[in-house]
UniProtKB/TrEMBL annotation:
Region (Disordered), start-end ranges: 78-121
Name assigned to this protein: PNK FHA domain-containing protein
Provenance organism: Amphiprion ocellaris (Clown anemonefish)
GO MF annotation terms: ATP-dependent polydeoxyribonucleotide 5'-hydroxyl-kinase activity; double-stranded DNA binding; polynucleotide 3'-phosphatase activity
CDD domains: HAD_PNP
Length: 501
C-alpha cells in the first residue's frame, strides 16, 4: 500500500506497508518493506526498515515518526464475522472513507466481504472459510500460513536492503541521513555517528588533536577534559562548505591513552560530542583506543568506514582527502615553527590508503607545502632477494641456513617461499635447543628431504653445525642472509604485532 497524506507529498514521504490479516486473532501483521529517512511506529514501538510488528484492536500505526496516526478497529460485518479497518486518528480527516455527507450525518461504509490470507496471496493452497465455520485444525493452519507469509516478507525486506547497499551504482543520493547520534564499539575502535551524517562517495578526513583542536593552556597535552579550543577560525566554515559540496566529514584519531588507562572512554566521548556541538556540524568520528589494525597509519579505521559505516556507498579515493598534523615535518619547517612533528603517521595513513594529503596549515590557511621526511625504510620499494636471478629452491636435496636478527623477516620468508616447496622447517623456538635442531636436520636428510634452518645463527660456530651435517650427508648447504636494516626490523616487528591482534 502506498501511503500519502494531505500534508506530505510523495517526494517528502513514501512508504510501502504489507498487511497480513489474521482474522481469527483479530490483529494486523505489518511488515515494513521500504522506508524513507523517518521510521514508523506501532503504538510506542519503532518500526524500522524491514522490521515487522503486530497491531491489535485499538492499536495505532504512526506513518512518520509519531505523526499521521491510523487506529486499528475491529467491527462485526453484516454476516456477523469480524472485519478489520484502519481508520485515521481523531485529528486526521479522510474525505473518501468514513467522512460526513452533505447533510451532516455520518456516512456508513458499505459492508466489505471478509478476506483471508489467500486473498492477498492467490497461490496459497488453503481454502477460504468464515471464522465461525473453521475447525481448530484449520485455525492452526491459517495461523501457520500467516507466519510463513510474514517470514517471506521479512526475507524480501532484508534482501531489498542488502541489494540496495551492494548495488554498484550506489551513491550519496541514495544514502539516508542518520536520525539519531550514537556510539558504537568494535574491539579497539569507538565510532560516533552524529545525527545528520549520511554516506558519500567523497570523504574529507581529518585528525583531531593539532588539526581540528588544540589546547587552551598552550601545553602539548591537555591538562583537563575541557582544555581545548578550535585550532583556527577558518575550520568551521571550511567544513561546512565541504558538506554543502556533498562530502562526508570524518574525524580519525588515535587515543592510546584509553588503552593505557590514562583516559576514560566516557570522558573522551563527552569531549567529542562537545567539539561537534561547537562546530554545529554532522560529523562521523573514528577513535582507535589502542594498538592494532585500527591505529593510524594502519588502514583499519578507513576500511571499517568503507565496508560498514558509509551506508553502502562506494568511496571514490580520487575525490577524497585526509588532513593531519603528524606529517613528518622537520625542525623549523616554517617561521615560528621550531618543533618537528612528533611522527608522520597521518601522512603515512593517507599514503597507505592512496589519498591526497595536506597539513592543517596547508588546507585551512592556504600555506605552501612544507618539507617533510618519511621513514628510511620503504616497504614498497624493498627488494625481495638479491640477485634477482637467484633460484630460491633447488630440485636437489640441500640445507638452507638463515642468518639474520629477530624481526628481519626470516620466518615469514621461509613459510611463504620455501616450506611450500617441500622443505622441512626447523626452528629453535619450536624444538627448544640447537641440539634438537641438528638432530632434526640429520633425520630429514636421511629421508632425502631438503631442510630450512630458521634461527638467527649470528656466529660462525652456530652456522658450522649445519654445514658439517650437510657435508656428512653429501648435500649442498646455502646461506640466506637477511640484511634488514634496523628501521626495517622495527617495521616488521610492528607489522607482526598488528597482524597477531
Amino acid at each position: 500500500i502506498k501511503c500519502y497524506t494531505e500534508s506530505c507529498s510523495c517526494k517528502a514521504f513514501y512508504c510501502v506497508l504489507n498487511f497480513l490479516f489474521s482474522d481469527q486473532l483479530q490483529c494486523i501483521i505489518i511488515s515494513n518493506i521500504f522506508l524513507g529517512a523517518n521510521p514508523s511506529f506501532l503504538d510506542a514501538d519503532k518500526l524500522g526498515r524491514g522490521q515487522s510488528g503486530k497491531v491489535t484492536h485499538g492499536g495505532t500505526l504512526y506513518l512518520v515518526n509519531q505523526d499521521h496516526p491510523f487506529t486499528v478497529k475491529f467491527s462485526l460485518s453484516s454476516n456477523g464475522t469480524a472485519s478489520s479497518s484502519a481508520q485515521r486518528g481523531l485529528k486526521a480527516t479522510d474525505k473518501t472513507k468514513g467522512g460526513s455527507n452533505s447533510e451532516g450525518k455520518e456516512e456508513q461504509p458499505s459492508p466489505t466481504p471478509k478476506r483471508s490470507i489467500k486473498d492477498f496471496f492467490p497461490t496459497s493452497p488453503m481454502k477460504v472459510t468464515h471464522l465461525f465455520e473453521m475447525k481448530e485444525t484449520e485455525e492452526d493452519e491459517e495461523e501457520r500460513l500467516a507466519e510463513e507469509k510474514l517470514k517471506h516478507l521479512q526475507e524480501l525486506a532484508e534482501k531489498s536492503v542488502t541489494d540496495e547497499s551492494k548495488r554498484p551504482g550506489s551513491s550519496a543520493s541514495s544514502a539516508k541521513a542518520c536520525l539519531k547520534s550514537s556510539w558504537q564499539q568494535t574491539g579497539n575502535l569507538m565510532l560516533y555517528t552524529a545525527a545528520g551524517v549520511k554516506g558519500s562517495d567523497k570523504i574529507a578526513g581529518f585528525d583531531i588533536d593539532g588539526c581540528i583542536i588544540t589546547t587552551k593552556s598552550g601545553k602539548v597535552f591537555p591538562t583537563a577534559p575541557d582544555d581545548w579550543r578550535i585550532l583556527y577560525p577558518e575550520i568551521q566554515p571550511k567544513l561546512a562548505g565541504l558538506l554543502k559540496k556533498g562530502y562526508k566529514v570524518v574525524f580519525f584519531t588515535n587515543q592510546m591513552g584509553i588503552a593505557k588507562g590514562k583516559l576514560r572512554p566516557e570522558v573522551f566521548k563527552s569531549k567529542v560530542e562537545d567539539i561537534l556541538a561547537t562546530l554545529q556540524l554532522p560529523v562521523q568520528v573514528f577513535v582507535a583506543t589502542g594498538p592494532g589494525i585500527y591505529r593510524k597509519p594502519v588502514m583499519g579505521m578507513w576500511n571499517h568506514l568503507c565496508e560498514k559505516a558509509n551506508d553502502g556507498v562506494t568511496v571514490d579515493k580520487t575525490q577524497s582527502v585526509f588532513v593531519g598534523d603528524a606529517a613528518g615535518r622537520p625542525e623549523n619547517w616554517a617561521p615560528g615553527k621550531k618543533k618537528k612533528d612528533f611522527s608522520c603517521s597521518d601522512r603515512l595513513f593517507a599514503l597507505n590508503i592512496g589519498l591526497q594529503f595536506h597539513t592543517p596549515e596547508e588546507y585551512f590557511l592556504g600555506w605552501k607545502s612544507a618539507p617533510y621526511n618519511l621513514p628510511e625504510f620503504d616497504p614498497v620499494s624493498a627488494v625481495l632477494y638479491d640477485p634477482p636471478s637467484a633460484s630460491l629452491t633447488s630440485s636437489k636435496t640441500e640445507v638452507i641456513v638463515a642468518v639474520g636478527f629477530p624481526a628481519s623477516g626470516k620466518s615469514t620468508f621461509f613459510h611463504t617461499h620455501i616450506v611450500p616447496q617441500g622443505y622441512v622447517y626447523i626452528n629453535r623456538d619450536t624444538l627448544g635447543s640447537w641440539q634438537n635442531c641438528v638432530s632434526a636436520c640429520q633425520r630429514a636428510l636421511k629421508e632425502g628431504r631438503s631442510v630450512a634452518i630458521d634461527n638467527t645463527n649470528p656466529d660462525q660456530e652456530s652456522r658450522k653445525r649445519y654445514v658439517d651435517v650437510a657435508k656428512a650427508a653429501g648435500v649442498t648447504c646455502r646461506c640466506f642472509h637477511f640484511s634488514a636494516s634496523m628501521e626495517q626490523a622495527k617495521h616488521n616487528n610492528r607489522f607482526c604485532r598488528i597482524s597477531c591482534t
